[in-house]
Design brief:
about 25% strand; about 300 residues; 9 strands; alpha/beta; six-stranded mixed β-sheet; 2 domains; GMP Synthetase, Chain A, domain 3; about 35% helix; three-stranded mixed β-sheet; Rossmann fold
């Protein structure tokens, strides 16, 4: 490692559904964190690592800020707020195509209290007119104390190289925090849970994914008769209402079967190992509002 090596944590913050996870995947040029058009998809802080020749950039993906309607959302907001404290650089992401809302202004106002480099990312520029982008850029430039304002399209990868250059400019000199080849510090068990939840969220109606939690009960690696590796994975999908159980399972098991198949394929592509995935649906009444359940599921 050279003396000029740079490293640090980039706190990626914003209201829910502005494309933070998609942006991180685009910057790393591979899928590291799950994405969805449903709010509250990201439920934990995940460090995603970009290794460069003379730098290691660690993007901390965080839950999007959301109006606290229950204890779960309150817990997710608290996790997102802690990212401000721990980051070397704060990266605020807004959706220029969707327009600015109270959530965006809350995050921008929150960022003002931290005396550290701040970058404002105007995401989804491919879906907004140049006039809309210019207007928002002007308004937010006055609203916050940003060192850089950069428009990107996370989905298309437009201008992400410029964003990386801006980050490197403000990144402090430091050690290599993670070994070469590392892309995330997320345990495999949590990756499995997120992927199963992502696949269910992609199929189900908007109100249902908020009530879903996936717990991986066991992961066992064994050999087949042909001496090939295979993962046996057992998951429990929890919903908070009895009526939701049948919806998640689907007619003749159609929803669960499709989500399980999609999750299995992604896990096999990720690991290079065959996967046998077993999923059961259970009810934990009102778990998003019960402190004991949130503690059991690791949200508190």
């Amino acid at each position: 490692m050279s003396k000029g090596f740079k490293s640090g944590y980039i706190g990626v913050v914003g209201r829910t559904n502005v494309g933070k996870s998609t942006l991180i995947n685009s910057l790393l040029e591979q899928k590291v964190v799950i994405t969805s058009d449903k709010p509250q998809t990201t439920r934990d802080r995940i460090n995603c690592i970009l290794n460069l020749e003379d730098a290691q950039i660690i993007f901390t993906d965080s839950p999007g800020f959301f109006k606290p309607k229950n204890l779960l959302i309150g817990s997710l907001n608290a996790k997102a707020e802690r990212v401000f404290d721990d980051a070397d650089i704060i990266m605020v992401v807004v959706d220029v195509a969707g327009g600015l809302g109270k959530g965006d202004r809350f995050v921008i106002e929150k960022s003002k209290g931290f005396k550290k480099p701040k970058i404002l990312v105007l995401n989804k520029t491919d879906k907004a007119s140049s006039q809309e982008i210019k207007k928002i850029k002007s308004e937010l430039g006055k609203a916050g104390s940003f060192n850089r304002i950069i428009g990107v399209s996370a989905l298309k990868g437009d201008n992400t190289d410029r964003l990386i250059k801006a980050i490197l400019k403000f990144l402090p000199y430091g050690p290599k925090y993670f070994p070469d080849g590392s892309i995330t510090d997320q345990p495999f068990k949590d990756t499995v849970s997120d992927i199963v939840r992502e696949k269910l969220s992609g199929i189900l109606k908007e109100e249902i994914p908020h009530s879903i939690n996936v717990i991986v009960e066991s992961i066992e690696k064994r050999k087949t008769k042909k001496d090939k590796d295979i993962y046996d994975i057992k998951c429990d999908v929890f919903v908070e209402k009895t009526s939701q159980k049948a919806i998640v399972i689907g007619k003749k098991g159609s929803v669960l079967s499709k989500a399980g198949r999609e999750a299995r394929i992604e896990l096999e592509n990720l690991t290079g190992v065959k996967v046998f995935l077993e999923i059961w649906v259970k009810v934990a009444l009102n778990w998003t509002r019960e402190e004991k359940d949130l503690k059991h599921f690791g949200y508190i």
